[in-house]
Every structure is written in C-alpha cells, then in structure tokens.
Amino acid sequence: MVWVLAVAICVVTGVQVQGQLNPHRPTSVQELGFGCLLDMCIAVDSSHSLDSQGFQQELDFLEKLVDFIDGMSGEVKAHYAAVVFSTNVSVHFDFSETRTKEEIKGKLQQIPYIRGRTNIPDAMEQCRMLLQRSPSKRYADIGAYIVTLVLTDGVANEGILTLRQAAGNLRRDQVKTIAVGAGPGVNMTELGVIAQGRLDHVFQADIPRLHELVEAIGATVCAGKKDTCQWSKWGECDAPCGGGIRIRTRGEESPCCDECLRKLDVQSCNRHTCP
C-alpha cells in the first residue's frame, strides 16, 4: 500500500522513481514566451478551375498571410505544412522541412499547378494527420493554435471521405479550420461545412482581392479564448527537506475560471538533502 501511494505521488508531482524531477509544465503559451504559438497546415487548391494567373495570385496571398502572422504584435512562433489537392492529394512540405519565414515563402511559391478535380475532403484529412504530430500539438491544451486553412476556388468533389466526415475528424482532433473561398465559383454552404459550422471562420473574395482578407484571417488564426484566470499564491511546502510538494489553485473566487484549462497546479519544493 505504501509503495502504491509513493508511485501515485511521483506521478502527480512529476518526480520520477529514480529521484529525478521532470521540468515544470507551463500552464499557458505565455509562460513559454509566446503571444501566439501556431501550427498551421495549408491545403491549396490546384484544380483545373483556376488558370495559371489565378493560381499564382493564390500563392501570393499565402505569402502575404505568412508575412502578416510573422509581424503580429507579441512574440509569434508559427510552424507550417502544406498539402496540394486536385484529383489527388500530396504533401508539398511538412512541419519538419521549414525553419524560417523565407523558407516557408519559398516553398509556397514552388507549389505546382496541377489541374484536375477538387478533392477537398482528402486534403483536409491529410492535414489532420500532419497536425497529429505537429511541433506544438502537445501545447494545444494551454493555448497553442492548431489550424487547417483550406484555400479553394471551386466546389468539392468527394474523395475517400465526404466533406462532413473530414470536417468531423478535424473537430474531434480539436483542430480549428479556416475556409477561404477564392473567386465567384465557391459554394458558401460547403465553406461553412469545411469551417465546422463556424461562419466567422469563413472568408471569400475574388482572386485578385484575396490580399484584402489577410489581416482578418491572420487575426482569426491567432485568436481565441485566452486563459486569463489568475493563480493563487503557492502554498507552503509540505516537507522542510528531502523533497516535498506545494500547490496553487485558481477558480475559487474568479468566475472566469469556470472554463480554465487547469485549476490545480503541483510543484516540487525543498529538494535539498535533510541534515
């Protein structure tokens, strides 16, 4: 019984059985030093309904969006991946292939103009799989933004999945989906399905005017409910030496804490050897 209790305490406090302490896990992306921590998979329409000039304007729009997000106030750390879809879907680059803004923009400009059908559902599913192992996924519970952006100029053709199935899979993985319709041929109802019913995540403009959407989309990508609830002061350590724990809480007095990400925080203390 004593051994089981000791193991339980080690799990709660982050202390390993060997006596090593795991680093304290942050409770917000701000503790990591970021105003916005973002992983975004961009799904780019390369179907036949676009001419080559319109396709290039789509790529230029994506470059401007990357520039805008990089220049947002507060420290922004963004990771990107991109998939290209027409009849088939392919990964153009994943989260491990780009490190700097210029590398990302260069990769975007290399996206090929393929033509073919408009297989949006399978592109969304490919983004979902990439985001399952994206760099900031482990911080989604403390405010990192995990996002799929679908840029399309046409009406979806079904692939292996339907549009609703693909949107449902992303929703279950807690991935925010932004739907961007380029040109007059888009189906606004379908854009709403892509965006999981969130009409504030749906944007549409004629292709030459896509750049006018950059600011609104950038603010949506790096925006959402902030974890602003205040922690209490740390309680006293429960041991004078040899390793103890101390606790802080939130939600006791502030109504905003009804939806706090975490209400209890535990930290080791007084780890020095007892005399």
The CATH topology of the largest domain:
Rossmann fold
Number of domains: 2
> Which architecture of the largest domain would the CATH scheme give at its second level?
3-Layer(aba) Sandwich
In CATH terms, the superfamily of the largest domain is: von Willebrand factor, type A domain
Total count of helical runs of at least 4 residues: 7
How many strand elements? Answer: 8
Largest sheet: 6 strands, mixed
The CATH class designation of the largest domain is: Alpha Beta
Shape call: elongated
User: Could you tell me the mean pLDDT?
Assistant: 82
Strand content: 15-25%
Report the C-alpha radius of gyration, rounded: 23 Å
Order of strands across the main sheet: 3-2-1-4-5-6
Helix content: 25-40%
Structural class comes to: alpha/beta
Q: What sequence of helices (H) and strands (E) makes up the elements?
A: HEHEEHHEHEHEHEE
Uncertain regions spanning at least 5 consecutive residues: 1-22, 224-228, 254-262
Domain VWFA: 39-217
Keywords: Signal
Protein name: Sporozoite surface protein 2
InterPro entries: ECM_Assembly_Org, TSP1_rpt, TSP1_rpt_sf, VWF_A, vWFA_dom_sf
